[in-house]
Amino acid sequence: MRSLFLCILSILSVTTSAQQSQPLSITLENVEYPHPVSFLPINTEGQDLRMAYMDIKSSRPNGSTVMLFHGKNFAGYYWTNVIKGLSETGYRVIVPDQIGFGKSSKALIDYSFHTLATFSKQLLDSLGIKKSIIMGHSMGGMLATRFALMYPATTSQLVLENPIGLEDYRAFVPYATTENMYKTELKTTPESVKKYYQSSYFVEWKPEYDELVRIAAGITGSSDFPRAAKVAALTSQMIYEQPVIHEFHLLKVPVLLLIGTQDKTIVGKARLSLEDQKKHGQYSVLGKQTAAKITNSKLVEFHNAGHIPHLEIAPEFLKALKDNIKP
């Protein structure tokens, strides 16, 4: 297993030790992605932006496409093994960095899942793709759900890997202003990132996960970090204020839920007492509750995984994914 993760994450490393010691730019120019990156020009709120994406065509195409939506603290780089598995199976794989994330523009705009879904639809349209499986992890699961609600004719199947938003955080997490969230983001350090990743994302920490920390924490050394921190605060507020849980029953497409049951993610967890933290974020319960709300759904649970099954138990996850999506 160790060698598998080293293989998955090594491609993310920069090419020289000198580069590794440098702070990262907030648009990750000095981070290698597993495939060539292109950019879609987007104009919104009077700003000219760039949306980064990878477009991976299979050598033996089956005629179907999968679009992957990343989580809030990640970008397209952490989908390496999923891209490989899907491409080998025949899928064309589209992997955008949403505006505000990864190599895309760090725009100071009014962030909404509706807006990000619109940008993602523009990307598919620009590539001439009329229908796609839409797969989202963590925050990407909320976005994928919004996309499927807005564009059911474009969504052949919705796949949700440990999505956040399976609870309405407004009901039990105290409100924080965007300004206060921004001040908190400005305090981010490599040490705080690693501590959060260790406590929140994986059942058992492995050294190869340090590469994920290096990328997420590297931007704190950039002179532009305050801008990235502002975007992080704006998108955190987006998650808090724009739940999708109340609309699961409106989904008109087949839904596959891939859930690591040891996940305990709560957005705004630090604002809760230890007692209240124990009452929420229980994915062993939330997965089943969510599946019951969706008419055409299938739930696959992984009892040996936390928030990121596609990294933590890669072979098992990829098998479940391939077995349950259809070209």
Mean pLDDT: 94
CATH architect. name:
3-Layer(aba) Sandwich
How many strands?
Answer: 8
**Within the largest sheet, what's the order of strands?**
1-2-4-3-5-6-7-8
What is the CATH H-level superfamily? Alpha/Beta hydrolase fold, catalytic domain
Run of helices and strands: HHEEEHEHEHEHHHHEHHEHH
Q: What would the CATH topology be?
A: Rossmann fold
What structural class do helix, strand and pairing data support?
A: alpha/beta
Largest sheet: 8 strands, mixed
Roughly what percent helix?
Answer: 25-40%
What is the CATH class name?
Alpha Beta
Structure overview:
The protein is α/β, with parallel strands linked by helices. It has a single domain, classed as Rossmann fold (3-Layer(aba) Sandwich), CATH 3.40.50.1820. Helix content is 38%, strand content 16%. It contains 13 helices and eight strands. An eight-stranded mixed β-sheet has the order 1-2-4-3-5-6-7-8, sandwiched between helices. Strand 1 and strand 2 form a beta hairpin. Helix 4 crosses helix 5, helix 6 packs across helix 9 and helix 7 crosses helix 8. The two termini are 29 Å apart. The N terminus is likely disordered. Keywords: Signal. It holds the Pfam family Abhydrolase_1. One of its GO terms (molecular function) is monoacylglycerol lipase activity. This is Pimeloyl-ACP methyl ester carboxylesterase.
